[in-house]
Specification:
Strand content: 5-15%
Distance between the termini: 41 Å
Number of strands: 13
Strand order of the largest sheet: 1-4-5-13
Number of helices: 18
C-alpha cells in the first residue's frame, strides 16, 4: 500500500457523526479523518463545526494511527512539491515550536544553502505570544512571502533556500485550521500540532527535518516532560512518512539573543550571519544546522556539521546566500546590499526605528538570575508587535532590546532593557509587567548553561552515533 494514499471504503461519513464520535473519545477511521480534512479544504464546514472538532480533539486526543492519518491527509490536501532528481538527499528544513526572540530560521536557512543543501522553508506568522518568521521577514521592504511552487523551485535553483508562506496550493487545510486553533485555545493539542507542523514538511518532500522543541516559561511547553509527548509524536510520524526526523530540546526561559520584535530580530539575525551576534543564537544555529548536515549525510558527525555551519557564518557565504534570497523574493538590490553589507546604522535606515525608546532600570543591586521571556512577549504583543485576530496588521518596529544578560552583576539604577514602541504609551501596567521579568538575586556572577538540553532520535536509533556539539 502506498503510505501517502491508503485505500479507504466508499461510505460517506457525516461531519456531525465524526464530531460526536471524537467528543465521546472514540477512535476515528482513516476515511472519517479524510472526509473532515477534505470538507475543511473545500469550505464545506462552518467555523463552529471545525471549532467543535478541534476542541473534541484537544479534550479526547488521538491514537497514534489517527495522528498519522490526519498528518497524511493534511499534507495531501494540496500539492506535494516535486524536485529535480539530483536534489535527492539534499532537501532539509527546520521547525521551531515557537519562542520569544527566535530568529534562528533567518540565519539557518542561508547557512544550510551555503553548505550545499536545498531549504524550501514554509513558515508561519505569529501564534499566541510567539513571533512568526514571516512577520520578521516582512519588516524588510519589498520582501514577498507569497511564492508559487514554480517560483520556489526557481529560487532554490539559484539560491538554495527560500522562506515562504503557505499558499492555497500547499497544505490549504492547515492554513484554515492553523488560524482557528489560535482562536479556539487548541494550539497545544499534540495531534493537531503534529499534523500542522509535519503536514507542511511532508508537502515540502523533504529528506531531513530537525525540530527545535522549546521548553520553559516562554514556550508553549513549560517543562521537558510536557514537551516530550509532542516531540515523540513528531519524530514518530515524520519517520513513518519518510522524513529523517530529529527533535532537539532547547531552553526558552529567557528570550533568545538580546533583541525581540520583528525588525530588531532581523537586525540580530544579520549580526549572526556576519559571524557575530549573541552566543546563544549562534549555538542554536550551528547545532540545528550541524544536526541536519549529519542527517542528510553531508557531515560525518553533528559536531563536524556544526563546524561547517559556523564556517559559513564566519566566511560570508551564509550572508551572501541571505542577500541572494532577499533579492530573489522581491527586495531591491540596493536595499539587500545595505542590509547585508552596511553598518548597523545603515541597516536601521532600511528597517526603520520606532518613534519612542524607553529604558527601564534595575530596582536594586544583584546578579541577573533570570530574564523571563513571557512578560516581555506579553507587553510587546500589547504594544502592537503581535495580533489579537487573524489578518491584523502589526507594528514591525515594536520590540525590546536587552542590555544585560543572565549571570551578569548589575547596579541599582542601571538600564536593563530598552522598549521600542510607536503609537501606544508604555503605561504603568506594562512597566509593572516588564519589571516582573527581571529576576535579581544576591549571588556571585555566573555563566549560564547551553540552550540545547536534549536530542530525540527516531525509535530505531538509541543515540547519536558520533559526538555532538557546537
Amino acid at each position: 500500500m502506498d503510505p501517502m494514499h491508503p485505500s479507504v471504503s466508499s461510505s460517506q461519513p457525516s461531519i456531525l457523526d465524526i464530531i460526536q464520535k471524537k467528543r465521546d473519545g472514540k477512535k476515528l477511521q482513516e476515511e472519517e479523518i479524510g472526509y473532515f480534512v477534505k470538507a475543511v479544504t473545500q469550505g464545506e464546514l462552518r467555523d463552529v463545526q471545525i471549532g467543535a472538532m478541534l476542541m473534541a480533539t484537544w479534550l479526547k486526543g488521538m491514537e497514534p494511527e489517527e495522528t498519522l492519518a490526519l498528518t497524511r491527509e493534511m499534507a495531501t490536501s494540496g500539492r506535494v512539491l516535486k524536485w529535480p532528481e539530483e536534489w535527492r538527499g539534499l532537501l532539509v528544513d527546520k521547525h521551531s515550536t515557537g519562542g520569544v526572540g527566535d530568529k534562528v530560521s533567518l540565519a539557518l536557512a542561508p547557512a544550510l544553502a551555503a553548505c550545499g543543501c536545498k531549504v524550501p522553508m514554509i513558515s508561519g506568522r505569529g501564534l499566541g505570544h510567539t513571533g512568526g518568521t514571516l512577520d520578521k521577514l516582512e519588516s524588510i521592504p519589498g520582501f514577498r512571502v507569497s511564492q508559487s511552487p514554480e517560483q520556489m523551485k526557481e529560487i532554490l535553483e539559484k539560491v538554495g533556500c527560500c522562506i515562504v508562506e503557505q499558499s492555497q496550493e500547499l497544505v490549504p487545510a492547515d492554513k484554515i485550521l492553523y488560524a482557528l486553533r489560535d482562536a479556539t485555545a487548541t494550539v497545544d493539542s499534540v495531534p493537531l500540532a503534529t499534523s500542522s507542523i509535519l503536514g507542511k514538511k511532508v508537502a515540502e518532500n523533504l529528506t531531513a527535518l530537525v525540530l527545535d522543541v522549546k521548553i520553559g516559561n516562554g514556550a508553549f511547553f513549560p517543562t521537558l516532560e510536557s514537551a516530550q509527548q509532542l516531540a515523540e509524536s513528531l519524530v514518530s510520524v515524520g519517520t513513518q512518512l519518510g522524513i529523517n526526523t530529529v527533535a532537539v530540546f532547547s531552553k526558552m526561559d529567557s528570550p533568545l539573543g538580546r533583541r525581540v520584535g520583528n525588525s530588531l530580530e532581523v537586525l540580530e539575525a544579520l549580526e549572526c550571519l556576519d559571524g557575530g551576534g549573541p552566543q546563544d543564537l549562534r549555538e542554536l544555529v550551528t547545532t540545528l544546522g550541524g544536526t541536519l548536515l549529519w542527517q542528510c549525510g553531508r557531515a560525518p558527525s553533528v559536531s563536524q556539521g556544526s563546524a561547517r555551519i559556523a564556517k559559513a557564518l564566519d566566511d560570508g557565504s551564509a550572508l551572501g546566500a541571505f542577500q541572494a534570497m532577499l533579492e530573489a523574493q522581491g527586495v531591491g538590490s540596493n536595499t539587500a546590499k545595505a542590509l547585508c553589507n552596511g553598518t548597523e546604522e545603515q541597516r536601521l535606515q532600511v528597517l526603520g526605528r520606532a518613534r519612542f525608546q524607553v529604558a527601564l532600570v534595575a530596582p536594586c543591586d544583584g546578579t541577573v538570575h533570570e530574564i523571563l521571556a513571557m512578560p516581555i512577549a506579553q507587553v510587546l504583543h500589547a504594544l502592537g508587535a503581535g495580533r489579537t485576530k487573524e489578518g491584523q496588521c502589526i507594528q514591525h518596529r515594536v520590540g525590546a532590546e536587552l542590555l544585560v544578560s543572565v549571570g551578569q552583576r548589575v547596579r541599582k539604577g542601571m538600564p536593563w532593557i530598552w522598549i521600542h514602541h510607536d503609537s501606544l504609551a508604555l503605561g504603568d501596567a506594562n512597566r509593572s509587567t516588564l519589571r516582573s521579568a527581571l529576576i535579581l538575586k544576591d549571588t556571585e556572577p555566573f555563566v549560564p548553561g547551553p540552550k540545547v538540553v536534549k536530542t530525540l532520535l527516531p525509535p530505531k536509533q538509541s543515540e547519536v552515533p558520533r559526538k555532538t556539539g557546537t
